[in-house]
Write a structure and sequence with these properties.
The complex is a heterodimer of chains A (120) and B (107). Chain A is an all-beta fold and 120 residues long. In chain A, 0% of the residues lie in helices and 53% in strands. In chain A, strands 2, 4, 5, 6, 9, 10 and 11 form a 7-stranded mixed beta sheet that branches. Chain A has a 4-stranded antiparallel beta sheet with strand order 1-3-8-7, with no helix packed on it. The radius of gyration of chain A is 13 Å and the shape is globular. Chain B is an all-beta fold. In chain B, 35% of the residues are buried. The chains are: A mainly beta (120), B mainly beta (107). The interface between A and B is medium-sized, with 23 and 24 residues.
């Protein structure tokens, strides 16, 4: 059974780069018809799709974040990562990684999420 | 971006009640619509995919319907563990977008 686990700093200073990693167990980031996805949720608010990377390395990003976002995969570690540059307080949120499955690209499973706070 | 309008934003109901949550897309999304349940402090869990397909292991009291722009999630007989927040999600066109959520509370 595939499981995902987010990790990274819980506190990032304004203007710096937020870096998170998602470790995949029970499956491989390099195989199957999957997209590996990042989604975030500010406290008390809804879900915002950040972007995804396919097993072949193709990426799609939310245009609202595209200039600041990079999603990459490290197949040797079975991980994929998120980098978000020039962060502000508006980037404070719980960040989730998830696997998008099949032609319909529904997301399952999700990680438990990690809170990132942007503050000096 | 495709806008997803979910209603109601909150709902009070009792154990055993039948409830429905609707999601409307700003343009046709075929059946690229999925429903998730989120409990406090947890990541969302997929319930229904492609509008009406129940994920394996999800209780049969959950059902989904719709196509095009209008979709519905129905819970036929609420159980205590169903009180949570529900989100719809369209994956027809990137960027994927979500409804604003429906918080289901105990009456």
């Amino acid at each position: 059974q595939v499981q995902l686990q987010e990790s990274g700093p819980g506190l990032v200073k304004p203007s710096q780069t937020l870096s998170l990693t998602c470790t995949v167990s029970g499956g491989f980031v390099s195989s199957g018809a999957y997209y590996w996805t990042w989604i975030r949720q500010p406290a008390g608010k809804g879900l915002e799709w950040i972007g995804r990377i396919s097993t072949s390395g193709t990426t799609n990003y939310n245009p609202s974040l595209k200039s600041r976002v990079t999603i990459s995969a490290d197949t040797s570690k079975n991980q994929f990562s998120l980098k978000l540059s020039s962060v502000t307080a508006a980037d404070t949120a719980v960040y989730y990684c998830a696997r998008a499955v099949g032609q319909q690209l529904m997301s399952a499973p999700w990680g438990q999420g990690t809170l990132v706070t942007v503050s000096s | 971006d495709i806008q997803m309008t979910q209603s109601p934003s909150s709902l009070s109901a009792s154990v055993g009640d039948r409830v429905s949550i609707t999601c409307r897309a700003s343009q046709s999304i075929s059946i690229y619509l999925h429903w998730y349940q989120q409990r406090p402090g947890k990541g969302p869990k997929l319930l229904i995919y492609a509008a009406s397909n129940l994920l394996s292991g999800v209780p049969s009291r959950f059902s989904g319907s719709g196509s095009g722009t209008d979709f519905t999630l129905t819970i036929s007989s609420l159980q205590p563990e169903d009180f949570a927040t529900y989100y719809c999600h369209q994956s027809y066109s990137a960027p994927d977008t979500f409804g604003q959520g429906t918080k289901l509370e105990i009456k």
